[in-house]
Amino acid sequence: xxxxxxxxxxxxxxxxxxxxxxxxxxxxxxxxxxxxxxxxxxxxxxxxxxxxxxxxxxxxxxxxxxxxxxxxxxxxxxxxxxxxxxxxxxxxxxxxxxxxxxxxxxxxxx
Length: 110
Fold this sequence. Notes:
By secondary structure, this protein is mainly alpha-helical. The protein has helices spanning 2-41, 49-52, 62-66, 70-79, 93-108. It has one domain (2-108): Cytochrome Bc1 Complex, Chain D, domain 2. The chain has 5 helices and no strands. It starts with a helix and ends with a helix.
């Protein structure tokens, strides 16, 4: 009985940690976007008027989403582009990947 209880407890802990890790990946992309990107790209990814005048893309448009690979988006986040500063010294590869996933989510909300 004791062994079975310990096995069940171990299973519950592993499952909880797995779910927490999965949720944190999605949440971290959302929170990172909010703290690092939304000031210029807007919370919804459509951009802000003052930056659109300088050529900022609307990240929610299917045309933009379809014409940019995940690698291109990650490269832009890493190295910057135009007025956008580089984040390679501020974000890990995992965080950049979470941001790419968040950017891709904008297309699905339409």
